[in-house]
Structure formats: C-alpha cells, structure tokens
Amino acid sequence: MLDPRPRGTLRLGAMESTAAARLPGLLAEYHARHPEVEIQLRTGNPQVLATAMLAGELDAAFAAEPIADAPFEKLPAFQEQLVIVSAASRISVEDRLDMPKTMIAFEHGCPHRKRLEQWYARRGFMAEKTIELGSYHAILGCVVAGMGIALMPKSVLSGFPESRWLKLHELPSDEDNAVTVLFWRKGAGSPNVTALQGLLAEQSLSTGVAAATIA
Question: Contacts by 196-204 with C-beta closer than 8 Å and gap 24+?
C-alpha cells in the first residue's frame, strides 16, 4: 500500500519567471509543512520540462499554457499579467514610425518569446534582431541599457533592483494575461505532488485562479 505521507524527494520543474517570482513563498510553506521532503528544482521552458517529465526525470512542473492535454493532468496555479518592458527613455512601443527593432528573449520554446513575436506580427512588423539570453536579470539589464524590448510577467519585476530605469508598457486585454499551471503525468501522481496541489488550492483565492483540475 502506498504511504500517503509526503516524504522522500519532490523533483519539481518550473519556468524561470515562475521560479523567481512565484515559488519562493510557496516552496517555503511546503517545506514548513513537510520538512521531510527534499525539493529539487529544475528550470526550463515548457518543452524542456514536458520532455523531462515524460522521461521520468520530474514529478511535476509549473509552466505557462498551452500544455498538451493527452499525457498530462493540470491544475491552474497563477494568473500572470504580461507587460512589455523598455528602457525608461522610450515613450511608446506602439509608434508605427518608431517600432522597437530588437527583441530580447529566452531561446525558442519560451512562451513569452512566442507572445512577443505574435505581438509584432499582429502589428504587421517583425523584429530585425533577437538577442537570446538565459536569465531575466540578464534580459532586464540589456533592456535598461536600451538594447531592445522584452515581454514578461509583471511579477518578475518586483525583485529587479534597477526597475526605476525601466518603462512598463501595458498590453491590450486580449494580449496581457497568461495562466501558469502545475502539470504532472497522468497516472503518476504521488503524495508529494498531492500535497503541493493542496497547497495551491488553499492559495487560489490570492492568485485569482480557481484551483480545479483541468481534464
């Protein structure tokens, strides 16, 4: 019979934005309730995390939708407001005579990069250059330096010490939100993952996302 108590190791994956802005408090509370569980955290884009999970290397992961339904079960976790950030000196990113020529983003597979590419496409433009970086602090540092624009969850900016040198550009209501889900392989749940699901359900009122499993 499976021991229903959380114990052992929880192998967790997350997008970097989620790991930086959303998980510190959540995992601190998880550890306080279940100190016998060792938490191992790996960051990556949704494709990397899904592949690792199907290979049996992760127990669960946080990633922005869309996540394939067939092999996974999902639980809404966080509602994110997306913004475009530029250097403080840029007045607008919507001036068709002065569209930003360079976008700064993670590698292909990052959903926020795809959203920024779609933002350009909906306005009939393409970025002339893309700078690929591996962390939000590096991306924001380049934005501050005036090298280009980036799209990211607004929650990421709360921990950036030089935010006064940034300008936030809000997006239209049909472009400004993303849902981050907790997902795991169908039929591969565990007491450790169940405990995390329960904690998310308790915190759902503060996140604004109903914690109900998506079939």
Answer: 196/10, 196/12, 196/30, 196/60, 197/75, 199/26, 199/29, 199/30, 199/33, 200/26, 200/75, 200/77, 201/75, 203/26, 204/76
Task: Give the other-Cβ count within 10 Å of 214's Cβ.
Answer: 14
User: What residues pair up with 183 in beta bridges, in sequence order?
Assistant: 61, 74
Q: Say what the pTM is.
A: 0.86
Residue type, 150: A
Mean pLDDT, the chain, rounded, equals: 91
Distance from C-alpha of 29 to C-alpha of 193, rounded to nearest angstrom = 14
Q: Tell me, what's the pLDDT at 94?
A: 92
Each residue's pLDDT tens digit, 198-212: 999 988 755 455 444
Tell me the C-alpha distance between 84 and 167, whole Å: 8
DSSP 182-200: EEEETT---HHHHHHHHHH
**What is the average pLDDT across 1-7?**
74
The answer to the question of residue 2 being in a domain is no
Q: Supply the CATH number for residue 70's domain.
A: 3.40.190.10
Is 213 domain-assigned? no
> C-alpha 38: how far from its chain's center?
22
Judgement on whether residues 59 and 91 belong to the same structural domain of the protein? no
| Domain extent at residue 87 | 80-170
Question: Do 187 and 126 belong together in one domain?
Answer: no
